[in-house]
TrEMBL record:
<keyword id="KW-0812">Transmembrane</keyword>
<feature type="compositionally biased region" description="Basic and acidic residues">
    <location>
        <begin position="298"/>
        <end position="307"/>
    </location>
</feature>
<feature type="transmembrane region" description="Helical">
    <location>
        <begin position="26"/>
        <end position="46"/>
    </location>
</feature>
<feature type="transmembrane region" description="Helical">
    <location>
        <begin position="167"/>
        <end position="183"/>
    </location>
</feature>
<feature type="transmembrane region" description="Helical">
    <location>
        <begin position="66"/>
        <end position="89"/>
    </location>
</feature>
<dbReference type="InterPro" id="IPR043216">
    <property type="entry name" value="PAP-like"/>
</dbReference>
<feature type="transmembrane region" description="Helical">
    <location>
        <begin position="226"/>
        <end position="245"/>
    </location>
</feature>
<protein>
    <recommendedName>
        <fullName>Phosphatidic acid phosphatase type 2/haloperoxidase domain-containing protein</fullName>
    </recommendedName>
</protein>
<dbReference type="GO" id="GO:0046839">
    <property type="term" value="P:phospholipid dephosphorylation"/>
</dbReference>
<dbReference type="GO" id="GO:0006644">
    <property type="term" value="P:phospholipid metabolic process"/>
</dbReference>
<dbReference type="InterPro" id="IPR000326">
    <property type="entry name" value="PAP2/HPO"/>
</dbReference>
<feature type="transmembrane region" description="Helical">
    <location>
        <begin position="101"/>
        <end position="121"/>
    </location>
</feature>
<dbReference type="InterPro" id="IPR036938">
    <property type="entry name" value="PAP2/HPO_sf"/>
</dbReference>
<feature type="region of interest" description="Disordered">
    <location>
        <begin position="275"/>
        <end position="307"/>
    </location>
</feature>
<keyword id="KW-0472">Membrane</keyword>
<dbReference type="Pfam" id="PF01569">
    <property type="entry name" value="PAP2"/>
</dbReference>
<feature type="domain" description="Phosphatidic acid phosphatase type 2/haloperoxidase">
    <location>
        <begin position="100"/>
        <end position="241"/>
    </location>
</feature>
Length: 307
């Protein structure tokens, strides 16, 4: 009966109502996205870089294996494809809405967190030397010993945003959320010992790890940047997932909290409707009894001649 009731809860029937209920959440998401864009253009802290420090940041400049435009595709679009596929199979608008909302919060909060730290720390990337001195001619301040760069300004500004890795944090936020989502859907922690389920759960995390490894291989980040970026992203993924879904190992971990709240509301409405019907039938029964009693009294009065 519950599944039959849920069958009518689709995007067409309840999508607008559900979105309106979470209007403030969508507004916050828009503000977070605007903040991410603003932080992208913020100048980083100009950390002191001396000649002796150039040894560890003299790696060659290489093109990124995973370009910046591909990161939102990996962290947001890939999970959304899975969410939509499961919605087509189950027609559960509550699951689709909360999953889409949760992964957006995970990625955007991670992005703000990462960019703020990037800007505040200002750590040089491993290829900073060639960003600073593209022709190889080194120039340092004679008093402080700090570098005097003559490379392209925008490329140089990006060269001071190594810690933590944004590619890695975004990937672990989105794909980490997807991993938790899948573990709940397939009941990976049902204590039945099906290792194949665990392999499915690990796949998104493996993809996120490969994104992080590519950043080290491309000399865009130090290993510490990737490690901390992945940690930030996965922590945010866990926090946002648990905000909308029960833990994956929970008996009800296969549905969002909103689904069970909806069932409770339906049960309350059904109980109230039954009570109203019972009261109505009881009231009608009392009225019928009163009319029968009145008629019987009137008939007795007539027969006794009192009327």
């Amino acid at each position: 009966m519950r599944e039959a009731q849920l069958g009518s809860h689709t995007i067409q029937t309840h999508g607008v109502r559900l979105a309106r209920k979470h209007t403030h959440d969508w507004v916050v998401l828009i503000l977070l996205a605007a903040l991410v864009v603003a932080l992208h253009f913020a100048p980083p802290f100009s950390r002191f870089v001396g000649k002796d420090m150039m040894t560890d940041i003299r790696y060659p400049v290489k093109p990124s294996t995973v370009p910046a435009w591909a990161v939102p595709m990996i962290s947001i679009l890939c999970p959304w494809i899975v969410f939509i596929s499961i919605y087509v199979a189950r027609r559960d608008v509550y699951d689709l809405h909360n999953a889409a909302l949760g992964v957006l919060f995970a990625v955007l909060i991670t992005a703000v967190f990462t960019d703020v730290i990037k800007t505040a720390v200002g750590r040089p990337r491993p290829d900073f030397f060639w960003r600073c001195f593209p022709d190889g001619n080194q120039l340092y301040d004679q008093v402080t010993g700090d570098v005097i760069c003559h490379g392209e300004k925008s490329f140089l500004k990006d060269g001071r945003k190594s810690f933590p890795s944004g590619h890695t944090s975004w990937s672990f936020a989105g794909l980490g959320f997807l991993s938790l989502y899948l573990s709940g859907k397939i009941k990976a922690f049902d204590r039945q010992g099906h290792v194949a389920k665990l392999c499915i759960v690990i796949l998104p995390l493996l993809l996120a790890s490969l994104v992080g490894v590519s950043r080290v291989d491309d000399y865009r980040h130090h290993w510490e940047d990737v490690f901390v970026g992945g940690l930030i992203g996965f922590i945010m993924a866990v926090l946002c997932y648990l905000h909308f879904f029960p833990p994956p190992y929970h008996d009800q971990g296969w549905r969002p909290y909103a689904y069970f709240h909806m069932l409770e509301e339906l049960e309350v409405e059904a109980a109230n409707s039954n009570n109203a019907q019972n009261q109505q039938s009881t009231g009608g029964h009392h009225i019928a009894m009163s009319e029968q009693q009145h008629n019987r009294t009137s008939r007795n009065d007539l027969e006794s001649g009192s009327v």
